[in-house]
């Protein structure tokens, strides 16, 4: 009962807007002092030190640095412009270009907020100028921007791997098939819309494409595609080939992003300072929440919360899939109000022992959670990605446009989530091949 009360108090205070890290730690310490012995907290320094010395978590600041540096390099803008011209003659070609570039940025940065804002600033004014419907334009950008939740190297997957004690490399490999299928489904939807309603997704005028191809065409292609692909292959290739661990690959990615920015002539003292400040800010936020979550996890277990939850599930005779549905709905709703970092650090330590007791595949569960979080980030009225995009959208784009535009993409996400539940092999097949 005390553990349940602790959990409820935390959720209420976080929803009221209190700082997550200090609420997690503070409330947990108060409950620990009331219901447990002071000597119990002798375990806390060891727990925090064990968490902070976790080699996997070094990947977090490195991937954040890589994403922020890539954002400053100007590579994303050139990639989008080039892709738009290559696909411009196709109906809906610009929207397809946005999806493909969003997928490549996801595979390069893994930071949802940065990707949505970057894509919104670069592509939304262009799509509106090309007479795209505001609904299709905003829906495409918001959904493409959140691909960083599922396409590796995703910070969500790094944190899930750490909390659930799963190989991050296996998570990255397991996320490839769902991520690629999701991108293909998005593209298929855009093609269908362009066929049914051509005025919603017009093609680029032939004169503009000809003008683009006239001068240094192959040089433009090389600079637009080779540099970002080099970054993606250096990170993911080194993991999949077994050359580097995810943490080592993150270091390679951080170095490559810096080199690419130098090659672009964009690495100035101001850019480097801004990147370091933003990386430090985001990393500190993640790790101070992690410290708070460590305190919460220790007290929750001290109050025998995990045992109580497992016993409750057994007494109610809830099946493994019923419990999975219960957790997925809870995470989906929580995603409206709190960030993925808090959800991972609050929910997953509580429910992971239950999934383990059911002998369910934790790799599969982690990919489901990641996809679920991605869906909740898109869902009106509280979807974080919609807030990010509205913040950089022109005044003529109304909130109702975002809400209408995102609904078909949410349906696609939910269908994909259902497919992963019905066919776990979509997640487990590739990691299994690695060991054969």
Q: What can be said about this structure in brief?
A:
By secondary structure, the protein is mainly α. The chain has helices spanning 2-15, 20-35, 44-52, 59-73, 75-86, 93-106, 112-129, 134-145, 155-164, 168-174, 176-196, 206-214, 217-240, 246-263, 269-302, 305-315, 320-337, 340-357, 362-376, 384-392, 399-422, 425-433. The longest helix is centred in the middle third of the chain and has 34 residues, at 269-302.
Please describe the topology of this protein.
Layout: H1 2-15, H2 20-35, H3 44-52, H4 59-73, H5 75-86, H6 93-106, H7 112-129, H8 134-145, H9 155-164, H10 168-174, H11 176-196, H12 206-214, H13 217-240, H14 246-263, H15 269-302, H16 305-315, H17 320-337, H18 340-357, H19 362-376, H20 384-392, H21 399-422, H22 425-433
Helix pairs in contact: 1-2, 2-15, 3-15, 4-14, 4-15, 5-6, 5-13, 6-7, 6-8, 6-11, 7-8, 7-20, 8-21, 9-18, 9-19, 10-22, 11-21, 13-14, 15-18, 16-18, 17-18, 17-19, 19-21
Description:
Helix content is 77%, strand content 0%. It has 22 helices and no strands.
Index terms:
436 residues, mainly alpha, 22 helices, 77% helix, globular
CA-based gyration radius: 22 Å
Alpha-beta content class: mainly alpha
Taken as a percent bin, the fraction of beta residues is under 5%
Helix content, binned percent: over 70%
- Report the average pLDDT across residues: 82
